[in-house]
């Protein structure tokens, strides 16, 4: 079962796709998400979002100023600023 992830900034979609694991930094600390995770609404802290795709490929992004929402098997990360790390 895959986790559908959408990472958006104030002005653009940064990354969307399927993942097996996502780790993000919130004001409460880092939190990891996999498919089937309980619903969560949290304030995003400045830091990295680490996305592990189903094939094991890693996607890294910097994000700050926003929130994340986990509902069902969908994780939405909305940041004021977000960009992929090359």
UniProtKB/TrEMBL annotation:
Lipid bilayer topology: Peripheral membrane protein
Coiled-coil features, chain-numbered ranges: none
EC number in record: 3.6.3.14
UniProt keyword list: ATP synthesis, CF(1), Hydrolase, Ion transport, Membrane, Transport
Pfam families xrefs: ATP-synt_DE_N (PF02823)
Keyword Chaperone assigned: no
One function term, GO molecular function aspect: hydrolase activity
GO CC annotations on file: plasma membrane; proton-transporting ATP synthase complex
Occurrences of domain ATP synthase F1 complex delta/epsilon subunit N-terminal (ranges): 3-82
Keyword Transport: yes
Localization: Cell membrane
Protein family per UniProt: Belongs to the ATPase epsilon chain family.
Name of the protein in its database record: ATP synthase epsilon chain
Organism: Microbacterium esteraromaticum
């Amino acid at each position: 079962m895959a986790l559908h992830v959408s990472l958006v900034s104030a002005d653009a979609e940064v990354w969307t796709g399927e993942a097996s694991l996502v780790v993000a930094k919130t004001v409460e600390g880092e939190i990891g998400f996999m498919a089937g995770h309980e619903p969560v609404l949290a304030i995003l802290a400045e830091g990295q979002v680490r996305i592990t795709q189903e094939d094991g490929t890693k996607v890294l992004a910097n994000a700050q100023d926003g929130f994340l929402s986990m509902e069902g098997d969908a994780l939405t990360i909305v940041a004021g600023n977000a960009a992929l790390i090359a």
